[in-house]
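User: For my dataset I need records formatted as: sequence, then structure tokens, nothing else. Please produce one.
Assistant:
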Amino acid sequence: MAKDTIAEEISWLDGIITHPENRNLFMDENQLEILGELSTRWVKENRLDLLNDLSAKYEEESIFAVIDRIINSNCKRDWEQAGKESHNSLDAFIARLWEPLKESGFEFTYRQEGNSTSFCVTQCPMAELARKIGGEKWLYHLVCLTDEPSITGFNKDIHFSRTRTLMQGYPDCDHTYTDQSR
């Protein structure tokens, strides 16, 4: 098996992609078939090779739809639990998610204005990894799309918006969180 950079660098995806409750997310037979292959092959094969193999077998948009639903549901559930375990303010979310990212090689600035906090991310190890392995389209769905369900799970009163990502080839990612409860 070729070096599996996704497995080495983003191992937290394993529990999400192979979560036993994922089957309950789908009714469509085609999506269940994709899920079955994705979840059973995920930890056994090179992840990028697997995704590319699935895209040769199924429509790419169908694979994205399955991945997106898995990511959304699992991230929302996990961050909902995190929000229940501690204070679930926007400041608490920033401390829990964003501050540790600095130690992982992310570079960003942020500003708070009223009930909104906006981030400008100029360095993202996930985008660098994606470019290195030619996996931008996959990592956008597997990594970048965790952002919205993470905050809505953590606190349903905080709205998330973003117009661009480094993963998509833009010079930065712009994340904005707006606390609707204020």
